[in-house]
């Protein structure tokens, strides 16, 4: 079945291009996004380049990962593991004029490493990694979120390093508020080793990098490449591109999706690049594979 027909936004990279009101704090790769808007049932799909901690102050933010659905309501937070694709639906409440107010904190590996060291946490806790975790927010965390709002009004005047300090403060507040979340931070630093075949097949049409696949498989990048070569007898980049092109050709032949839709549905991020590698592989442009749809009971043209 071919269900995915829209481009998957890579966040936080693509958030600056979103067409609705939001503020972004970014310093040395550390990103905080504030969004206050009026919306009802806005849907989309995101690929998480970093771990994400999201707080809802008003409205609701629904996250779908695999077959599971999680609803994050007012004064709740959700922690999401990086390198996964989620579907989302966000909406304000009818009684408040559909105001949706939330804040997103993107947590890089380096920041988590520094936090774990500063907090003197033991890294051998047996807690299992949960890709999506939803928890209530206490008063201390709510006050912290509101304390961040003034920074979005003067992004050009923030001293270097302040965003990092505020993110570390956030991690301490979250860890103090919920012990299980504290151990989730530890587990984000180590993913259970999984089958390379399973990880690759699950993400074959997602816009993942080799670093993402290595992380999801619980391996270093060098170990992932070595184990992949042993299984497939070729490099990951070459095999994954070939597999995506096979899927793309099948979609072009068997569905009514446009070349652009097929490009984004198979993990490619540029139509021009997709068209180039498709022609190199099959000798024809992707548009050549598109077949005119036959009307019901219409005889094929001889």
UniProtKB/TrEMBL annotation:
Domain HTH araC/xylS-type stretches: 194-292
Residues annotated as transmembrane: none
Keywords: DNA-binding, Transcription, Transcription regulation
Gene Ontology MF annotations: DNA-binding transcription factor activity; sequence-specific DNA binding
Protein name: AraC family transcriptional regulator
Source organism of the structure: Paenibacillus durus (Paenibacillus azotofixans)
